[in-house]
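Researcher: Let's do a round of design. I'm pasting the structure tokens now; please hold your answer until I've finished.
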């Protein structure tokens, strides 16, 4: 049986011009749009990669460009640009062997201008040495490359002026703090398009320390607003804002002379705190009773500081503190010279000695001024002369035997006045630099005399600190009660008040002396018996220390005041550079450097 043939299907008749059906046409256009979109996306990704790679080249990043890498992202069908930039901070320095171990553990490298530190921080050497892989003078370099170069010089000054104590102590950090960098790996994708260059980072605290050490004075310092403006010693810091990342700090060095200092004060943590209005208390005399720093940079800070010193006994109640702060606030408003007895002496009374015994650091006796008030009663020659005269009269009192400690203090005062009068019996401070030539005979003699006087005064300061640390008198109570006595003499600072006209003649002071300073010290002595009574009551009531003699308290007060005089004559507070707010100390708020 034969199979049946398939039925014939009639063939459709098409015209001469054939067109695809509408569905095929739609698919074609969709495919073309997808193809073009893919091409455009690939082109944009290539352009971004190319732009980022160009921005991370040696003519922009210097030696840091050798860390630039291209990483394929296959799932994203693109190539990512990854670069390294520095995170700048400050850290203590160790001995050579310990320092290398610490750097490997923490990943932070000290900037001290040695061959090893330059290699670790990928920083240019001096261009005159022709050791740069790329020309440092390139106009396209980001500003943080030259900033690292200057920080290396700052760290070199720290190591030269404050050399390590001994290699035996290399396992413990030295008192000096140096700039340091940590290499941070970042993606170029995180940089906003309007910025376009790799950024370094630091913190608000490190930026403030860095600027003050360079000798920069802030005209605008508003971290929360992202506004910075400062200049000084050939350095300029400005800021601009960018979307998504906030403020970008820009650094310029317009003074390239090698003689310009990169470190304007003693490079220690204690001195850095003063730039924030904070005074670190000397643990040798305070012990563990003052675990926090004293804020003396503003009236608000003083309102927090006063209860720490006068927070026991009769002044613990709020009414007493409010009464004292109102008196001080009124004096701040009325005083035209910014002088408030007692408060201005808080730094020498509470702070430790900040300079070392090295001869090389004699010129490095500068510290930041924690506030803009005058330096205090103990800074003046008027107070020094009154103190010595009243101490002599006190010990010569026929009704009592002179104390051993009081006699020692008086003997030291006379020795310094007779043998080192030019460096002791004066309120003139030694500047950071001396313009005279080093081969000048008078210059060498003056330096030798200053070295001898400075070493002797530091020794006396150390002796008084050691005595107070072993005294039965609580040092916090002693300082607090002295503050009560000192602030009670605030009437002499109010314009219109009339001090005694014979005060200068009584103590042999010349007509150019300030009677208010002489009155303040004389007032301390007049009220010394009441101060002693208050301290004895406080010790008995709060510390249950009974049987403390009046002579013991008086000897402690003599030692405290002499110690403050020694501090004032061995430290030079840098004027006309206000501190930044204390809240910015150790602030981790990031700041970008571009």
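Researcher: That's everything. Go ahead.
Model: Designed sequence:
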């Amino acid at each position: 049986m034969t199979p049946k043939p398939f039925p014939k299907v009639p063939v459709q008749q098409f015209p001469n011009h054939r067109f695809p059906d509408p569905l095929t046409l739609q698919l074609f256009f969709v495919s073309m749009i997808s193809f073009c979109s893919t091409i455009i996306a690939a082109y944009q990704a290539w352009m971004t990669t190319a732009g980022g790679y160009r921005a991370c080249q040696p003519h922009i990043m210097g030696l840091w460009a050798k860390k630039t890498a291209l990483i394929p992202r296959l799932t994203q069908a693109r190539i990512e640009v990854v670069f390294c930039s520095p995170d700048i901070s400050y850290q203590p320095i160790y001995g050579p062997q310990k320092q290398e171990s610490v750097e490997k553990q923490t990943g932070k490298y000290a900037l001290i201008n040695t061959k090893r530190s330059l290699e670790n921080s990928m920083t240019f050497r001096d261009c005159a040495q022709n050791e740069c892989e790329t020309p440092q003078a390139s106009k396209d370099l980001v500003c943080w490359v030259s900033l690292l170069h200057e920080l290396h010089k700052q760290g070199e000054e720290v190591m030269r002026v404050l050399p390590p104590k001994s290699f035996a102590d290399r396992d413990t950090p030295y008192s000096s703090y140096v700039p340091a960098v940590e290499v941070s790996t970042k993606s170029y994708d995180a940089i906003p398009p309007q910025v376009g260059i790799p950024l370094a980072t630091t913190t608000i605290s490190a930026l403030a320390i860095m600027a003050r050490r360079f000798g920069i004075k802030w005209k605008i310092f508003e971290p929360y607003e992202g506004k910075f403006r400062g200049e000084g010693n050939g350095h300029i810091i400005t800021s601009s804002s960018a979307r998504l990342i906030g403020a970008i700090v820009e650094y310029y060095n317009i003074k390239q002379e090698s003689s310009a200092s990169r470190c304007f004060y003693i490079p220690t943590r204690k001195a850095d705190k003063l730039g924030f209005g904070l005074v670190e208390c000397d643990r040798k005399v305070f012990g563990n009773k003052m675990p926090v720093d004293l804020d003396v940079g503003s009236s608000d800070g003083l309102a927090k500081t006063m209860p720490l010193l006068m927070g026991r006994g009769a002044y613990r109640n709020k009414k007493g503190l409010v009464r004292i702060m109102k008196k001080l606030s009124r004096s701040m408003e009325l005083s035209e010279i910014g002088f408030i007895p007692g408060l201005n002496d808080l730094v020498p009374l509470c702070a430790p000695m900040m300079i070392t015994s090295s001869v090389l650091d004699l010129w490095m006796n500068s510290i930041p001024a924690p506030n803009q008030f005058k330096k205090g009663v103990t800074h003046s020659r008027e107070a020094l002369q009154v103190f010595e005269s009243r101490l002599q009269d006190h010990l010569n009192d026929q009704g009592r035997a002179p104390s051993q400690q009081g006699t020692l203090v008086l003997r030291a005062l006379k020795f310094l006045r007779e043998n080192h009068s030019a460096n002791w019996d004066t309120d003139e401070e030694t500047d950071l630099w001396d313009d005279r030539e080093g081969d000048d005979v008078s210059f060498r003699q003056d330096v030798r005399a200053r070295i001898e006087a400075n070493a002797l005064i530091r020794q006396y300061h150390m002796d008084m600190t050691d005595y107070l640390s072993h005294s039965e008198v609580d040092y916090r109570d002693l300082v607090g009660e002295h503050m009560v006595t000192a602030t009670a003499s605030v009437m002499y600072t109010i314009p219109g008040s009339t001090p005694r006209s014979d005060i200068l003649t009584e103590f042999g002071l010349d007509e150019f002396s300030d009677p208010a300073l002489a009155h303040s010290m004389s007032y301390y002595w007049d009220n010394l018996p009441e101060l002693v009574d208050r301290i004895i009551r406080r010790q008995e009531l709060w510390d249950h220390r009974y049987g403390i003699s009046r002579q013991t308290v008086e000897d402690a007060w003599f030692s405290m005041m002499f110690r403050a005089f020694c501090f004032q004559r061995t430290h030079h507070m840098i004027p006309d550079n206000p501190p930044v707010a204390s809240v910015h100390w150790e602030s981790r708020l990031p700041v970008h450097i571009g």
